[in-house]
Amino acid sequence: MENQMNMSASTATARASLAYPVIILGRDDSGKAHASFFPATDAQPASRAANLMGMFSLKADSDAVRSLLPKLPKGKLFDSGKAFVPFVKQDLYQQIAAHLPEADRAMAETVRATPADVSQQGHAATPSNVPEGWSKIVVGSLVLATEDPLEGWFEATVIELKSDGVLRLQWRHYLDLPPFNRKLEDVALLHPSMKL
Fold first, then answer.
1. Residues paired with 145 in a beta bridge
2. Most buried of the four, 23, 56, 116, 152, by CB within 10 Å?
3. Collapsing DSSP states into helix, strand and coil, what is residue 195?
4. For the structural domain made of 115-196, what CATH number should be given?
5. Separation in Å, CA 14 to CA 11, 18, 41, 62
6. Whose CA is closest to 66, among 90, 99, 93?
7. What is the pLDDT of residues 46-104, one digit of tens each?
């Protein structure tokens, strides 16, 4: 009987010490909502990344928060200590933010002030430079690119026009990630009337 009680106590202690998945959320300098989930095995580095990036981390330690996990893209951790946290829809962001502690809730709705976007060459990205057509894409143009269409499309600045219709791009909101190449037919255009 005593052994069973000890086993029950140790099982309860083990369950209490289990890590939970974590959601990172926050707004960028243009007010767009970002959120993603990280598995329990990445909970500690994801929470550190949230602090480093001025975002919020939320433990999925309740059924209500866990029910939101399937609606979120999985985030990615980088060697720099930061994380890739994709865009999410406003209503989903607000559902998640409602589970933050009261003091953090209002701050999660505040637009972060961050330095101006700068490409690898040090040129400021020009958010107003939304090309009206494929032939109007120039260095500094803002286009949409993706790593995987299931993960979504994100703003990227053209930093070089290479041969054979290849563009050298830099993620607009993830300047710590390295520049990358995409063929012209693998990027999308923002609507010319898009307000950024």
1. 154
2. 23
3. coil
4. 2.30.30.140
5. 5, 6, 15, 17
6. 99
7. 989 888 888 889 999 999 999 999 999 988 888 888 888 888 888 999 999 999 887 77
The DSSP string of 49-102 is: HHHHHT-EEEE--SHHHHTTGGGSPBPEE-TTS-EE--B--HHHHHHHHTTS-H
> Please, which pLDDT band fits residue 194 given cuts at 50, 70 and 90?
low
Q: Name residue 72's amino acid.
A: L
* Nearest partner of 119 among 129, 105, 133, 132, judged by Cα: 129
Torsion over CA: 160, 165, 171, 176 (sign): negative
**Boundaries of CATH 2.30.30.140 in the chain?**
115-196
Res 16 pLDDT > 50? no
